[in-house]
Design a protein that fits this description.
Blueprint lengths: L2 E5 L2 E4 L2 E4 L3 H12 L4 E3 L6 E5 L3 H11 L8 E3 L6 H4 L7 H8 L4 E6 L6 H4 L4 E5 L4 H10 L3 E2 L14 H8 L5 E3 L11 E4 L6 E4 L5 H8 L4 E2 L23 E5 L2 H17 L4 E4 L7 H18 L3 E5 L6 H12 L2 E4 L1
Parallel strand pairs: 3-10, 4-10, 6-8, 7-11, 12-13, 14-16, 14-17, 15-16
Antiparallel strand pairs: 1-2, 2-3, 4-5, 5-9, 6-9, 7-8, 11-12
Helix pairs in contact: 1-6, 10-11
Length: 337
């Protein structure tokens, strides 16, 4: 990968600018967004690939660059609560309370879509997912652009999401206009997506904001969506996601039997001269740490040339539920010990 020094804070990598998170660079990135370009930027969850949410042509380019299915909707990012009224046609019951409690932060709300947001953003659905990220670079970029930014994860579709600028460049260098390097993402998995357009609040994708925290804020029960085969109202529901290049076997079941099976599988594949990667062998790890390390570890296995990855489940409690959701989506096969 060739990196050419252009000027202080600006580098070009095979046609993609690598920008540092200072004022001039953010102003340049905002100008790219306003002109219909694509900019990858850090959020507290993962790096997003942003385009002006009101620019249908720019949004279509996101799908082209990522190789993303057209029926997989995007999330719109705002920098101020006032922008919510540009994106959403109305606020269902409970939306204002959730915004006050969890924004800025890793909670996306599915709301009725306003006419300002083109069909391309929401795959033709009458709803739109919207959130306000808490990362200061993301907030400054959106505010400077002066328009809500539609942004899925900044990776090739199906690959592990990027939590560092280097991950973005590994997938998209030369295909997008710029990347703002804001360092590692502190949460490490995508936002919770909550649908407020039905009779009962429905979590479409788990994340750092848990069902328990949402129910406590709303003062009523929250449901969690199961498998989905129709037109998905949220990213991360229908397609295989987050996958490393090597097959990933997810081992579930009682801890002792699980660890015994992993050890046996490791010996079996190593005898066949396969390079085996082990994911989350330490079950004492905090779920927040597991989330922060997950995508980085999957990409590291790619770099190391792993032939097979053996992963084991962690308790699906709190942020652990989000980790297990991503592992299940990434897995080639789930095996119960």
């Amino acid at each position: 990968m060739m990196i050419k020094n252009m000027s202080k804070g600006f580098h070009s990598i095979t046609g993609t600018f690598l920008l540092q998170p200072h004022g001039k660079a953010i102003a340049r990135a905002a100008d790219i967004i306003r002109r219909g370009g694509l900019v990858a930027f850090p959020t507290e969850t993962v790096y997003g690939l942003g385009a002006a949410a009101t620019d249908a042509a720019a949004v279509r380019r996101i799908f082209q660059v990522k190789g993303r299915p057209a029926d997989n909707p995007l999330i719109v990012h705002v920098s101020a609560k006032e922008q919510l009224y540009v994106v959403a046609a109305s606020l269902p019951e409970g939306a204002a309370e959730l915004v006050d409690r969890f924004w800025p932060g890793p909670l996306s709300l599915v709301l009725p879509r306003s006419s300002a947001i083109p069909d391309e953003v929401s795959a033709g659905l009458p709803t739109v997912a919207v959130r306000m990220p808490s990362h200061p670079v993301a907030l400054r970029l959106i505010a400077r652009a002066g328009v809500p930014i539609a942004a899925p994860s900044a990776n090739r579709s199906g690959r592990p999401s990027p939590t560092m600028a280097s991950h973005v460049l590994a997938d998209l260098a030369g295909r997008i206009d710029a990347v703002i390097d804001g360092g590692p993402c502190p949460v490490g998995v995508e936002s919770t997506v909550l649908d407020l357009t039905g009779a009962v609040p429905l979590i479409l994708r788990p994340g750092a904001i848990t069902a328990e925290a949402i129910a406590k804020c709303l003062g009523r029960a929250v449901e969690i969506a199961g498998k989905y085969s129709g037109k998905p109202p949220s990213p991360g529901m229908k397609y295989r996601h987050y996958s490393p290049r090597a097959p990933l076997l997810l081992i579930t079941g009682p801890p002792a039997r699980r660890e015994k099976l992993i050890a046996a599988l490791k010996r079996h594949y190593q005898r066949r001269n396969l390079k085996v990667g082990l994911l989350m062998p330490d079950q004492s790890v905090d779920p927040a740490v597991a989330a922060r390390r997950l995508y980085r570890a999957l990409r590291a296995f790619d770099q190391q040339g792993a032939d097979l990855i053996l992963a084991q489940e962690i308790p699906a409690v709190g942020l652990g539920a989000a980790v297990m959701n991503r592992l299940a989506k990434a897995a080639t096969r789930i095996i119960k010990a």
